[in-house]
From TrEMBL:
Function: Catalyzes a salvage reaction resulting in the formation of IMP that is energically less costly than de novo synthesis.
Keywords: Cytoplasm, Glycosyltransferase, Purine salvage, Transferase
Gene field: hpt
Occurrences of domain Phosphoribosyltransferase (ranges): 74-156
Protein's name in the database: Hypoxanthine/guanine phosphoribosyltransferase
Amino acid sequence: MLEVLKRSLEICPIVQRGEYSYFIHPITDGVPLVEPNLLRDVACALFKALDLKDVNKIVVSEAMGIHIGTVLSLMTDIPYTIVRKREYKLPGEVIIGQTTGYSKGTLYLNSVYEGDRIAFIDDVISTGGTIRALLPAIESTGAEVADLCFVINRGNPDIGRAYKSLVTIDVDKDGVHVLDSYF
Ligand SMILES: O=P(O)(O)OC[C@H]1O[C@H](OP(=O)(O)OP(=O)(O)O)[C@H](O)[C@@H]1O
Ligand code: HPA
């Protein structure tokens, strides 16, 4: 398990976004091509790694949480909602400031309510800026984040609580180096 993911990371290209060495990978970018065997490898590992007991909703963030949220939802029959980069002004919408290693923006959380037990998944954690902003926003609704898992962990940031990641990597100008994996 995770052999396909690890191999694909070791060959992925790097581009500079200012000071930030950005790796380009099918799971985090949708390019190069998302091969079904890679998606299957990731989906099965997420399903196995996450504790989904009594979880009633999956939360993912736009854009690149969406394909992994879709496959996990199909596998588990648990519905998911997407934290969007677009405002809806629905009642209860939570507005979140997001800062990553290369961008700043605003996210909008909907469809999460008091009493929900949430599994949060995302393609990558890097500086941790996104999840550090998202966690209190989800919890402000009265929902509990029961488990969280990232497909790729670069940087292993402290987010104030435990989290899971399928693979841990280091990125430099020469490429991606896989340091550790969950399975
Ligand atoms: O740990 P951080 O430094 O916050 O980085 C992680 C975030 O960066 C990416 O999202 P991005 O906002 O680039 O959007 P995308 O999914 O559309 O690529 C990724 O999907 C995470 O949500
Ligand atoms: O280096 C990266 N590559 C792809 N997605 C990302 N999201 C945060 N950092 C990265």
